[in-house]
Design brief:
Elements (H helix, E strand, L loop, with lengths): L14 H8 L3 H14 L4 E6 L6 E6 L4 E8 L2 E8 L1 H9 L4 H8 L3 E2 L2 E8 L5 H13 L1
Antiparallel strand pairs: 1-2, 2-3, 3-4, 4-6, 5-6
Length: 139
């Protein structure tokens, strides 16, 4: 089974499909997207098919790098970020929950940085999610 609920390479997710799959968490998806655009108005978005193991994910990027990844699942989605050293240190010194700090601390480090995913449900702490995104956008 793929990471994303959208597994078929031939079917790029349409907005109505996304809304159906995410259900109540769709509004959070939109709020997080808007937060990135408020901070980076020139950012662009794209759907990307990463293969059978991952399925479709949604990216927001600036000219140099991917800022955030959003991965649709049934009834929720995953926020994926890749942090460099500065963003990692900032996030670990921030007021985000200890659970999120543990996710960051234990994330595997790759050449491009420390990649991690956070499950986002309707009742997720929006302020923590904003802080995680802001750490990425500042560094």
């Amino acid at each position: 089974m793929a990471l994303s609920v959208f597994e078929s390479k031939e079917n790029c997710p349409a907005p109505a499909d996304l809304q159906d799959v995410l259900a109540e968490s769709y509004s959070l998806w939109e709020v997080l997207k808007q937060h990135v655009y408020n901070c980076k108005p020139d950012a662009t978005e794209e759907w990307n098919y990463a293969g059978k193991s991952f399925g479709w994910s949604f990216r927001i990027r600036d000219k140099k790098r991917v800022l955030i990844y959003l991965i649709p699942c049934k009834g929720y989605f995953k926020l994926a970020l890749v942090y460099g050293g500065k963003a990692t240190e900032e996030a670990l010194q921030s007021f985000v929950s200890e659970d999120l700090k543990m996710i960051i601390r234990t994330a595997k480090v790759y050449a491009e940085g420390r990649g991690f995913r956070v499950d986002v449900f309707q009742n997720s702490n929006l302020e923590d999610l904003y802080q995680l995104i802001d750490c990425k956008l500042r560094n």
